[in-house]
Amino acid sequence: MATILSVSGSPSATSRTARLLRHLDERLIAQGHEVIALDVRTLPAEALLGADFGHPAIVRATALFERADGVVIGTPVYKAAYSGLLKSLLDLLPQYALAGKTVLPLATGGTTAHVLAIDYALRPVLASMGPAHITPGWFTLDKDITVGEDGTLTVAPASAEALAQVTDQFSAALGGRTTLLAAAG
């Protein structure tokens, strides 16, 4: 199956965005894919803020993008745009870092007023990086993501269903089996 890079652009260590991505990673792994997680917040600030293209951490991140067949990009939305942390990383990647790849954009935020941030802020930047295909993305409201005291993640049923659908579409675009097909087979 495919190798997928799952990128969290959240600056928070307790990020709902990152937790949601790890939840979706499990679904993709169950469908037979290899998933590599990259939390941009773990990259050194001096590399990101100093625009140090040759910094070892940026070189490693670039190699992860090169290795991937598909990329899931997750970001919290702030003021109708994707995170500045994610922007910093995307700016340091080669112009066509997504060339030939399938991409799934995801976002989280506090209000439906930001639901179009995927299509009007994030998608154009991703498209400029040369992907073969950007699958339909999904915006999840923060209120639909609950983290229990034990760290377990619960997604509201309607959001969980929509996320499963876009994740399965992404998996199918990569040649993976969907959970529904796996259950039938």
UniProtKB/TrEMBL annotation:
InterPro entries: Flavoprotein-like_sf (IPR029039), FMN_Rdtase-like_dom (IPR005025), NAD(P)H-dep_FMN_reductase (IPR051814), NADPH-dep_FMN_reduc_SsuE (IPR020048). Keywords: Flavoprotein, FMN, Oxidoreductase. Gene3D superfamilies: 3.40.50.360. Residues 3-144 form the NADPH-dependent FMN reductase-like domain. This is NADPH-dependent FMN reductase. It comes from Streptomyces cuspidosporus.
